[in-house]
Amino acid sequence: MNRIGEVLTVGHLVKAYGDRAPAVDDVSFSLSAGKTLALVGESGAGKSTIGAVVTGTVAATSGTVGVCGEDRSRPARSARERRRRGLQLQLVPQDPYTTLDPTQTVGDAIAEAVSLRGGARNGRAARVADLLAMVGLSDAHRELRPRSLSGGQRQRVAIARALAPEPEVIVLDEAVSALDVSVQAQVINLLNRIQRETGTAYLFITHDLAVVRQIADDVMVLRAGRIEETGSVDSIFGRPRSSYTRALLDATPRPGWQPAQSG
Ligand SMILES: Nc1ncnc2c1ncn2[C@@H]1O[C@H](COP(=O)(O)OP(=O)(O)O)[C@@H](O)[C@H]1O
Ligand SMILES: [Mg+2]
């Protein structure tokens, strides 16, 4: 089923690595344009596996994945198809330090992602400048390389690269988990603003429920590869039905909690 506005649909997804018990077992959900679905659960619950299947880096054992109404359950057959898929869905990884090319400047890294969409070469520099501004970096960052950036700045570059092809969906796997709390809040504000401006949908994978309230519309709680419960942020945080969800919430700092400032 494909309702208007659904940019990602996952149906009865199963992923088993080798002959072990499935890491993901019969998971179904959908995500609409302009919305954020948080995928939460303990380490090993299967969150990253779902993200990897959706982004096409891991093949499903069974089940369906649709992005913008197109079937993604089989790998891309050609470079052209991979490019098309990149225009629909992008990934922001946990640690962009390992995915950004250390020899490439910020400007070149973003320009490379801009070129995925094609279009006139002479418009690209302006687009890079727009993207830098969108993620709160300045022209001065353009010539820097990843080692000269802070963790928060690298994450902004990764977000700019993901936004460059104007995808309908961005998968963020623990994208702010490595950042300290104040930088985390800045990046989340940035993601919220970008979503309002562009209507991009986010699949926001995290083990940290403290950030979920700040970004998500809906939450899916995973437990050992299966859906434990799913609902709006208000219902999951306000009236969790399962004891597993309650235990996750109890292990999470309360809203309004502020860490002691260091330094
Ligand atoms: N490439 C892999 N090969 C074998 N097992 C894996 C692989 N990736 C993940 N797993 C296993 O699948 C389960 C789910 O892992 P993962 O999706 O990374 O969970 P999460 O992101 O929620 O921590 C874990 O038991 C993990 O050990
Ligand atoms: Mg993970």
TrEMBL record:
Transmembrane segments: none annotated. Signal peptide: none annotated. Residues 8-249 form the ABC transporter domain. It holds the Pfam family ABC_tran. Keywords: ATP-binding, Nucleotide-binding, Transport. It comes from the Bacteria. The keyword Nucleotide-binding applies. InterPro entries: AAA+_ATPase, ABC_transp_ATP-bind, ABC_transporter-like_ATP-bd, ABC_transporter-like_CS, P-loop_NTPase. Belongs to the ABC transporter superfamily. PANTHER family: D,D-DIPEPTIDE TRANSPORT ATP-BINDING PROTEIN DDPF-RELATED, TRANSPORT ATP-BINDING PROTEIN. This is ABC transporter domain-containing protein. It comes from Microlunatus ginsengisoli.
